[in-house]
């Protein structure tokens, strides 16, 4: 470690406030310009946590220093340390104790932590993380994530901390030109604990700089060194596809791929590559890629790992994209050399590599997919996944939720084409409106963060992260390193990048469905919601679900309630919000009464979201024979009220089932009807509430980014 005096000298050089002090030998006098009361700290090359070993005394007078030093020497010796000197500083006036720290991690760079400091960091672990460099608004976002922010704001008559001074301190440490940017690679951990934040200043009263071995992260995947952006159009709209690894005798994965794209209606050219067979799946073969005299947009490669590099080398100058399905590369220790050779081979050949160790690419408009009976209706949602198996689930579950995909790309090891590069391409692609990511690597997420930070274009991004464990760094010396578990870093990256982080595949599909269905040019204000539908208990549960996602259901204004009451509705309605109406009310005008109700609500209020919920089974049993298609009429009424009001309110719909096959079939039909009118449909309130959060988060971020871009 640096000595504390060395660390504080560095801090001072970057304008970070530290106490006045001096480093002295035991028995040495200090000058009169160091004012009492004093803090005396032990200097020892083996001492990490000074307080635990009795190496800190506060409120010391000048004439007590020798006595304090003698006692410290005894206590340190008992703990196995030797007192080598003293750091004597002026005591900083009391204030709030905050910890600010940073730890360097391979692939991530500096991760920065802020939280309640002193012993509280160990007890409550009330901390927030971000990745350097940090802008001031990102630092404020971190502070507002703390449960203890109310304490810093002066809760219950306490002293209000100088938040601008704290932001300035963190910026000088972790901003674009801060101290972290200038430190040598062998500085790996920093703790400023505590930083005393009073009403007028923020002072780093303790500083720990840890030095360790420099980790070689190697060259970054996707970094070809030429600065050129790849045009991914041939990948998503291929006209000539080569397939390597299909069998002329026993069908395998490559054979199934050929069958999938033929049955999906691919109308380009398919060229199976085989050294001996004359035809495969009824298609004429070529002996190698060298025999194909026309450019190949996409090569699907399912050969043994040891044969892949040689086979692709024959496609130099001919193949644009090669997706290597084969495993046995960098995901296992014995395959790392094979992966390095493969990457060098494709770069020499001018081929962009997807994979290896993946499943394939799904491109709806290109009629290309790696799954049988693939959903190929062209859409605007592009997904990048580090998992091949989950890519299949994303397609299946997403299709059932009503998502029409632009593409789903399984990137596996990401040895060449990375998630970040595909995100950058999707931001430029007018065919894509919404981006979904499944990532298991924090380093890959950091690359995405960098792309989103520097891009002037912004689109909604939803992140599903694998490996969100609470495991920290067991070998970490600093509090920051010990607390930097993945469960904190994933939310930090998502917050800083402006991505919506979700917890499950179902939530992933829910958020993508809402974002791809709603008109995101609508810019709602606030986070209020109105609930409308049949079932009072259901409405209560809906309000609870919304509150868990950070939305409120405040009562409607008295004027709105009076106007609703004036509609002449049957008795038994709750009109305050939630608006609870029994099936008998929905029967008025055979369901068209819903348009009257929602028109009043939208004319007299402007909630961010309006969630209608219908118990389809109850409506069908009670009203179907006498009032016709009430549910369908309500859906049309919701869309009609929205269109006529032209309000800044997003409309969402929950269609609840009783579990019967008849009701399930009806819901499928009604869901399609709603989606064609631009209304996303969900099976439960929990899904609608999560969708509402995602839409409000992403809509605001997309809107703000577009304004910032216009300002530039």
UniProtKB/TrEMBL annotation:
Residues 235-329 form the CoA-binding domain. It comes from the Bacteria. Pfam families: ATP-grasp_5 (PF13549), CoA_binding_2 (PF13380), Succ_CoA_lig (PF13607). Keywords: ATP-binding, Ligase, Nucleotide-binding. Coiled coil: none annotated. GO terms for molecular function: ATP binding; ligase activity. PANTHER family: 3-HYDROXYPROPIONATE--COA LIGASE [ADP-FORMING] (PTHR43334:SF1), ACETATE--COA LIGASE [ADP-FORMING] (PTHR43334). This is Acetyl-CoA synthetase (ADP-forming) alpha and beta chains, putative. It comes from Rhodococcus wratislaviensis (Tsukamurella wratislaviensis).
């Amino acid at each position: 470690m640096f000595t504390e005096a060395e660390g504080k000298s560095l801090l001072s050089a970057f304008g970070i406030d530290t106490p006045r002090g001096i480093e002295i030998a035991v028995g040495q006098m200090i000058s009169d310009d160091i004012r009492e009361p004093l803090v005396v700290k032990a200097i020892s090359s083996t001492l990490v946590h000074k307080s635990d070993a009795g190496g800190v005394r506060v409120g010391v007078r000048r004439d007590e220093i020798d006595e304090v030093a003698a006692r410290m020497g005894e206590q340190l010796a008992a703990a196995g340390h030797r007192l080598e000197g003293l750091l004597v500083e002026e005591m900083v006036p009391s204030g709030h104790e905050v910890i600010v720290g940073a730890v360097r991690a391979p692939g991530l760079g500096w991760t920065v932590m802020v939280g309640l400091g002193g012993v509280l960091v160990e007890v409550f672990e009330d901390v927030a993380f971000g990745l350097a460099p940090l802008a001031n608004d990102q630092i404020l976002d971190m502070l507002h994530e703390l449960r203890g922010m109310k304490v810093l704001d002066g809760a219950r008559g306490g002293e209000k901390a100088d938040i601008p001074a704290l932001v300035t301190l963190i910026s000088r440490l972790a901003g674009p030109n801060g101290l972290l940017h200038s430190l040598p690679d062998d500085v790996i951990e920093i703790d400023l604990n505590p930083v005393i934040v009073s009403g007028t200043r923020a002072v780093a009263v303790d500083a720990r700089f840890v030095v360790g071995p420099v980790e070689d992260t190697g060259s970054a995947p996707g970094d070809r060194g030429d600065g050129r952006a790849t045009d991914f159009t041939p990948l998503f709209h291929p006209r000539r596809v080569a397939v390597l690894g299909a069998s002329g005798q026993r069908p395998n994965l490559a054979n199934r791929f050929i069958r999938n794209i033929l049955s999906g209606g691919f109308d380009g050219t398919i060229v199976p590559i085989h050294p001996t067979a004359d035809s495969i799946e009824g298609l004429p073969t070529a002996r190698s890629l060298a025999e194909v005299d026309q450019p190949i947009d996409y090569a699907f490669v399912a050969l043994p790992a040891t044969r892949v590099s040689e086979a692709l080398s024959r496609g130099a100058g001919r193949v644009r994209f090669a997706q290597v399905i084969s495993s046995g590369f960098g995901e296992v220790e014995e395959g790392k050399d094979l992966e390095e050779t493969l990457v060098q081979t494709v770069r020499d050949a001018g081929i962009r590599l997807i994979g290896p160790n993946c499943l394939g690419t799904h491109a709806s408009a290109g009629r290309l997919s790696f799954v049988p009976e693939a959903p190929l209706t062209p859409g605007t949602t592009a997904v990048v996944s580090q998992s091949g198996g989950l890519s299949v689930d994303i397609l299946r579950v997403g299709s059932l939720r009503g998502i029409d995909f632009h593409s789903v790309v399984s990137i596996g090891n990401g040895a060449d084409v990375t998630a970040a590069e595909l995100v950058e391409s999707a931001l430029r692609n007018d065919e894509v409106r919404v981006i979904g990511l499944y990532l298991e690597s924090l380093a890959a997420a950091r690359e995405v963060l960098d792309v989103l930070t520097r891009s002037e274009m912004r689109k909604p991004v939803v992140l599903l992260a694998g490996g969100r464990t609470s495991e920290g760094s067991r070998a970490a010396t600093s509090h920051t390193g010990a607390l930097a578990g993945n469960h904190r870093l994933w939310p930090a990256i998502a917050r800083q990048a402006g991505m919506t982080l979700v917890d499950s595949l179902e939530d992933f599909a829910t958020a993508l469905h809402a974002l791809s269905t709603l008109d995101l040019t609508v810019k709602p204000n606030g986070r209020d919601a109105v609930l409308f539908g049949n079932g009072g208990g259901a409405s209560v549960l809906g309000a609870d679900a919304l509150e868990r996602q950070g939305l409120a259901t405040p009562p409607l204004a008295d004027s709105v309630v009076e106007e609703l009451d004036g509609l002449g509705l049957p008795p038994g309605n709750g009109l305050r919000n939630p608006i609870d109406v029994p099936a008998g009310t929905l029967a008025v005008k055979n369901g068209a009464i819903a348009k009257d109700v929602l028109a009043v609500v939208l004319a007299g209020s402007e909630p961010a979201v309006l969630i209608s919920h219908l118990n389809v089974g109850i409506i069908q049993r009670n009203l179907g024979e006498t009032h016709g298609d009430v549910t369908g009429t309500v859906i049309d009424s919701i869309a009609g009220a929205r269109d006529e009001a032209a309000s800044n309110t997003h409309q969402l719909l929950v269609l609840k089932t009783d579990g019967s096959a008849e009701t399930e079939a009806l819901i499928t039909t009604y869901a399609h009807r709603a989606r064609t009118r631009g209304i996303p449909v969900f099976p439960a309130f929990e899904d609608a509430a999560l969708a509402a959060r995602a839409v409000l988060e992403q809509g605001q971020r997309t809107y703000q980014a577009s304004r910032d871009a216009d300002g530039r």
